[in-house]
Amino acid sequence: MLTAHMLGKQYKTEWALRPLTLQLGTGLHGLLGPNGAGKSTLLRLFAGMLAPTTGDALLRGSSVRDFRRNGGRIGYLPQNMRVLPQFTARQWLLHAASLQSKASLKERMLIVDDVLEQVNLRSEADVPARSYSFGMIKRLGVAQALLSASDLLIVDEPTAGLDPEERIRLRRVLAEAAATRVVLLSTHVLGDIGASCREVIVLGRGRLMYHGSTQGLAGFAEDRTWAWETSENEWRRMPLDGLLSARKTDEGILCRALSERSPSPFAQRVEPTMEEGYLALMGHQDHQEAGGLF
C-alpha cells in the first residue's frame, strides 16, 4: 500500500501541490492533469526524491525516503531521461544493476536480458546510445525503472515518442509489473489510461480533483455529451463552443459535443467517454475559479 497523508509541496509562497490524501494498492494507477497541475511534483514526492512541505508518503508503513535508505526498491522514470551516449543499453543497465544488487555478474546479466526483452531492446542492446532514437531512449528508461522496482514503479510520460505498436507493448509490460506492486503512470495520452488503469488520479492547478475508477471519471460528462450528424454547410455555420470532434462520413459530418444544453435540434445524448468526463471535470474547475457556472 502506498499512502499519502496531507502530502504537499510549497515553494516560497506558491503551492506546487496542495496537501492531499490518497491510498494506492497493488495495481496500475493513472495520473492525469494539464501542464503545471503538480503531477511531476507528486511523482517525485512518491519516489522519495523530494522532501514534502506537509505530510508524508508511506510505503509499507515507512516514509518513502526511509524506505529507500533501508534498502527498499522504487523504480522511477522521469519525463526527461539522460543516458551517457557512449554506453550501450546493456552496459547502462548492468551498471544500474550493480548499484542495486549484490547478485553475481551472471545473475545480473540474466536480469538485464529479461528487461531488455520486455521493452524490445534486445536487438539494439550492444549499440551505443548515441545512435538511439527518442523512443528507444524512453524504452531504455522504462527498462531501468523496471530493474529498480520491486515495491513501487513510477513512470512519467513513458509512451511519448513511441509508435502505436511499442505503446501497446509498454501497456502490457506495465500491466504485468502491476500484478505484484504499485505502479503509477503519468501521461497525457488518455487512451493509455483507459486501456490499462483500474483507477485514475486527476490533478488541476496543484489540487486533487478526482481519485476513483475510470468509469467514475466518465460520469462527470453524464447528460452533457451529445452526438448528431449534420451537413457540411450547416456545420460551417455552427458555433464551436463545446465541440469535441467532427468526422466526415458518407452522409455528412458526425459531430460530438460537451454542453449543458442541446447544441443542435438533431443532437441526442450519448454515453460519455473517460476523455469527455475529464474535460467536463477540468472545465468545471475553470468555471468555478472564474466565478461562473459550467
Walkthrough of the structure:
This protein is of the alpha/beta class and 294 residues long. It has two domains: 2-213, P-loop containing nucleotide triphosphate hydrolases (Rossmann fold), CATH 3.40.50; 219-289, no CATH class. Helix content is 35%, strand content 28%. The strands form three sheets. Strands 6-7-8-3-9-10 form a six-stranded mixed β-sheet, sandwiched between helices. Strands 2-1-4-5 form a four-stranded antiparallel β-sheet. Strands 12-13-11-14 form a four-stranded antiparallel β-sheet. The longest helix has 16 residues, at 274-289. The two termini are 36 Å apart.
Write a brief caption for the model.
This protein is α/β, with parallel strands linked by helices.
What is the overall shape?
globular
Biggest sheet strand order reads 6-7-8-3-9-10
CATH structural class of the largest domain: Alpha Beta
In CATH, what is the homologous superfamily of the largest domain?
P-loop containing nucleotide triphosphate hydrolases
Low-confidence stretches at least 5 residues in length (pLDDT < 50)? Answer: 287-294
Distance between the termini: 36 Å
Return the CATH topology of the largest domain. Rossmann fold
Radius of gyration: 22 Å
Count helical runs: 10
Along the chain, the helix and strand elements come as: EEEHEEHEHHHEHEHEEHEHEEEH
Q: Please name the CATH architecture of the largest domain.
A: 3-Layer(aba) Sandwich
- Strand content bin: 25-35%
Query: What structural class do the secondary elements suggest?
Result: alpha/beta
InterPro entries: AAA+_ATPase, ABC_transporter-like_ATP-bd, ABC_transporter-like_CS, P-loop_NTPase
Family: Belongs to the ABC transporter superfamily.
Protein name: ABC transporter ATP-binding protein
Pfam families: ABC_tran (PF00005)
